[in-house]
Specification:
It contains 19 helices and 35 strands. It is an alpha/beta fold and about 750 residues long. A hairpin with a 2-residue loop joins strand 24 and strand 25. The longest helix is centred in the first third of the chain and has 38 residues.
Length: about 750
């Protein structure tokens, strides 16, 4: 009985005592029945006969008055005990429990701060209040809590709300931190749907606690669809907003550069981009830069950033020693602290080796390449080595960033295989044609029907570019490709001065029948006659650039140079940009988005299974040790090798994670992995209540609670309080009781009344 009362009354302790009050009108009625009646007339026989005639009517009226007074007492009792009743389910008569499923959004935008409060902290406060209110009816309500970043593992699962739960909940919420990740609200809602579908409780309520950013509703239509599906299944839905207003926010959206070619004492140019997500202009924005946690003696200043716009600026960093280095840039804290910093990990080398293979032993084309990319190694950071074709088959190529093949007639097949592996693993390859080139070999062994090192089949002989018809035409027409970003989109006298006389044409048949289908081949520069001159394609992880003219002024039989490009300053710019563009960074040198795992697949013949990870200093600099598991893996050729495989997944904190891999000879190979805050969380514009309701179709099952308001929690837990209905019924009953009591009572006429 007590459990039933606590389930259906907020103040259940008062119900039993208040029930005794129902006896009061009955006792008063019985006492009145025993009173003598005063009769002021002498004709007693007449009065007695009249009383007997009206006795049944009077008795019915008195019993009706008694019933009204009993109902009045019951209504007062219901008001004092605060009855809770779901009129659609009549759970009061079924003894049903209610189940509250809370989905807490802990994505990066919930770190949005105003004063000392954040959206996430506001959400935790709501959870505590819901649980505390439910504890007023212990063991009659169930509670589940899903945190969005761990939607597949609820923090609490169908637990009875009681004092024990309250204590455990308080402890867990005190240690719960908001993530930095970009999360999908629909994933948490789908988990709630599965949980509610499994539950047999008659009353089900979903509480979604979030900041309700506009981007979550405009770009992710699945969220509204899932909520609508829940509302149609007789689930009450509370959308609880935690952030009061949209706030301005500045975010660092990019920190990038050609980090793969970073070398000691060579300035490395980096680019930083800022975006203003607010509605007002941001002025005099200063960004600090740090190398290995040491602040550089400079500030990167943005004079003005218009509302909604993004601007970039370059700056240089010089490293005085090789090895792994950490770079980060930082803004002054604003509404969202996560996007005020951005990180990068760089492996700085003493120099970057580049291999140049000249197919003509007596030629000097290599000199033009070497002079362009490394007039002085301390200036560019490149260290070219000039070798013959035989070098490709006898030495490992993985040490080189890029490989040039100049005027090469043919290649040994084992050299072709070595180059294919080099490029597939991420190396860069550059072809330059020349008179020694053998088209038949290239078409058969290097083109390989579109699967090889060469982008397209060649015609069997070279072709001469006709003489210019006017001085306004140019031989070299470049596209808007990054390699030509300095030249494209403007009249450039350097490019205009380049003369090209001879080249190897692409097969006409291929151009007519297969060029459109060769989606991986891009023509990035053409000749005056629209013939392709420079092409780009990929093989595995690597890029290949093919130039169909010579690398230097090779002379024809008529004494004319193939081209004069090597004498033009644009040649140096092109070759340096080519180095930066082609180099493929190793995966651990690239910045990732927080939450992505760090995968490890290590050669068991080189490494032990012990991996040590140092988390970012901002996370406390903890040390985690992992053990990798052996696993047989096969490469594309079908060769099987033993790999040590594992993954580190706790990368929620932005910053640089340092990894130490122990090799079989007990030496340590260090690596760095940078993780950054997702830019998608930086737009703090909120959806209004009207916008949310329009998206959700104004369903009566859906209620939207404004931030900072908690009065809706009281009485919402197991159904709906019917206080207003009881007050209305009580008012009507009081009027009826007064009218009936007046009718049944005696009202003598006053002495001065008219006869």
């Amino acid at each position: 009985m007590e459990a039933w009362l606590t389930q259906h009354f907020v103040n259940s302790a008062l119900v039993s005592t208040g029930a005794l009050m129902i006896a009061a009108p009955i006792i008063i009625h019985l006492i009145n029945r025993f009173q003598y009646k005063r009769v002021q007339f002498a004709a007693m026989e007449f009065l007695l006969q009249s009383q007997q005639t009206n006795q049944r009517r009077v008795l019915i009226e008195q019993l009706l008055l008694l019933l009204l007074r009993i109902i009045l007492i019951i209504c007062l009792l219901l008001l004092i005990g605060r009855l809770i009743l779901d009129p659609t389910q009549m759970s009061m008569f079924h003894g049903a429990k209610s189940h509250h499923v809370i989905v807490l959004d802990d994505s990066g935008s919930m770190r949005n701060a105003w004063g000392e409060q954040t959206g996430f902290q506001e959400g935790l406060q709501v959870i505590r209040k819901i649980a505390s209110e439910g504890a007023n009816r212990p063991n009659t309500e169930k509670f589940s809590l899903i945190v969005l970043s761990r939607a597949d593992a609820p923090l609490f699962l169908q637990r009875d709300i009681n004092e024990e739960l309250i204590n455990e909940l308080d402890a867990k919420l005190s240690n719960l931190n908001c993530s930095h990740q970009s999360l999908d609200l629909n994933q948490g809602l789908e988990a709630a749907v599965d949980l509610l579908n499994e539950d047999r409780a008659i009353i089900k309520t979903l509480h979604l606690i979030s900041d309700f950013r506009k981007s979550d509703w405009q770009e992710k239509k699945g969220v509204a669809s899932t909520i609508e599906k829940l509302s149609n299944s007789d689930t009450a839905i509370n959308l609880i907003k935690t952030v009061p207003d949209s706030q301005s926010n500045l975010a660092i959206t990019e920190l990038s550069g050609a980090t793969e070619v970073a070398a000691v004492d060579v300035p490395l140019r980096l680019r930083i981009s800022l975006k203003n997500f607010g509605e007002q202009v941001a002025e005099d924005v200063r960004v600090s830069a740090f190398v290995d946690q040491t602040k550089l003696p400079m500030s990167i200043v943005f004079d003005k950033i218009e509302a909604g716009s993004e601007i970039s600026q370059d700056f240089d960093v010089v490293f005085n020693k090789p090895g792994l280095h950490e770079i980060n840039v930082s803004l002054t804290n604003d509404a969202l602290d996560g996007d005020n910093e951005r990180y990068m990990a760089i492996n700085v080398k003493p120099s970057n080796p580049v291999l140049i293979v000249d197919g003509n032993p007596s030629g000097n084309e290599w000199m033009y390449i070497q002079t362009a990319i490394a007039p002085d190694a301390s200036t560019t950071g490149f260290a070219p080595s000039v070798e013959n074709v035989d070098y490709l088959r006898r030495h490992p190529l993985s040490q080189f960033k890029n490989i040039y093949l100049l005027n090469v007639a043919e290649l040994p097949l084992d050299a072709v295989a070595a180059l294919e592996k080099f490029v597939s693993d991420g190396g860069g390859l550059i072809w330059f044609a020349g008179p020694s080139l053998q088209p038949a070999f290239y078409n058969e062994k290097l083109y390989k029907n579109g699967n090889g090192l060469f982008p397209a089949p060649l015609e069997m002989s070279t072709r001469e570019l006709p003489v210019r018809e006017s001085s306004t035409t140019v031989d070299l027409n470049v596209s808007d490709h990054p390699l030509f970003s300095v030249f494209a989109g403007q009249d450039n006298p350097l490019i205009e001065a380049v003369t090209i006389s001879r080249y190897f044409p692409i097969s006409e048949q291929w151009l007519q029948t297969k060029a459109e289908k060769a989606s991986g081949v891009n023509v990035i520069a053409t000749l005056r006659n629209r013939a392709p001159l420079i092409l780009e394609h990929r093989l595995g992880k690597g890029r290949i650039i093919t130039c169909l003219t010579s690398a230097g002024p090779v002379m024809t039989n008529e004494g004319e140079p193939w081209n004069t490009w090597a004498f033009n300053p644009s040649y140096i710019v092109f070759q340096l940009e080519l180095q930066k563009y082609l180099v493929q960074s190793r995966s651990h040198e690239q910045a990732e988005i927080v939450g992505a795992p760090i995968p490890f697949s290590l050669d068991a013949s080189r490494f032990s299974d012990e991996i040590e990870i140092q988390t970012p200093v901002t996370q406390g600099g903890r040390t985690i040790r992992l053990k990798a598991s052996p696993e047989e893996q096969s490469d594309t050729a079908g060769n099987s090798t033993l790999q040590l495989v594992t993954a580190y997944r706790d990368t929620d904190q932005p910053g640089v994670y340092t990894v130490q891999l122990k090799q079989q000879d007990q030496t340590i190979e260090p690596r760095m992995y940078a993780f950054n805050f997702p830019v998608s969380e930086s737009n703090l514009e909120l959806a209004t209540t009207d916008e949310l309701m329009n998206e959700l179709g104004n369903s009566k099952q859906i209620q939207i609670q404004e931030p900072g308001e908690f009065q809706w929690i009281q009485g919402q837990e197991a159904g709906r309080e019917i206080t207003n209905a009881i007050l209305l019924i009580l008012f009507v009953l009081l009027i009826c009781e007064q009218l009936l009591a007046y009718r049944l009572s005696y009202h003598p006429k006053t002495a001065g009344a008219a006869a």
